[in-house]
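How a chain folds remains the central question behind the approach discussed here. For one protein, we set the task of working out the structure tokens from the amino acid sequence alone. The sequence in question and its structure tokens are set out directly beneath this paragraph.

_____
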Amino acid sequence: MTFQYQIQPASENALLLTFSTGTENTAGLMDFLPLLQKLIPQIETVFAQNLREIVPSYHSLLLVFDLQQLSYATAKQQLQNLVEQLQQDTPNLADFHQDSSGKIHVIPVCYDLQFGLDLAELAQQKALSIEDIIRIHSERTYQVCAIGFAPAFAYLGEVDERIASPRHASPRLSIPAGSVGIADRQTAIYPKASPAGWQILGQTPWDLSLNNPDNLMRFRVGDQVKFEPIGYNEFLAIKNGETP
């Protein structure tokens, strides 16, 4: 499967790079992740101190550069050169391989029903027990595919098809910080209290908000996340004293 790309202006100092496979093939949710993992370090090297921010997603990448040091035309040409070289070296999308050098994050999650707001209903919809939902959700190791929606909000994939579920038609006005939810075949942790349309299965006692500035860069595309079920008493113990 070959890939195509498009570079568009996002602002006077930002470029949006989008990948596709053309009209004859449809890429899966995570098919471009190995390509992005290969490309991002090259961008960081070439743009160096002129790079302000990289925001990757499932099949796109937003690049923000220092306009005082680099013109828009030069930035676009540098990015185009990198992508075309990548396309020349590896024209087949399937030949990009997952980089296993990312961090592995083991996140404690309490699936108690007071935190798992949608756990019982989801179990009923899927004709599974609550224990099955918890086991299926927590036994898989997820990939960080994108960062977005809010600072430090990492989109993780892919959720097992047996428990995949769409967003709520009417989002909740607010859910607690640390809530763990699923939407279709994605799962994520809400780093702060916010409106939410996802199916909420549990909550982590860890503070992943920007109360700790290090959380802004805690997750990177290509990292792996594993959820570790914990009981309510352990949740309280961590919440009241221990930190990740």
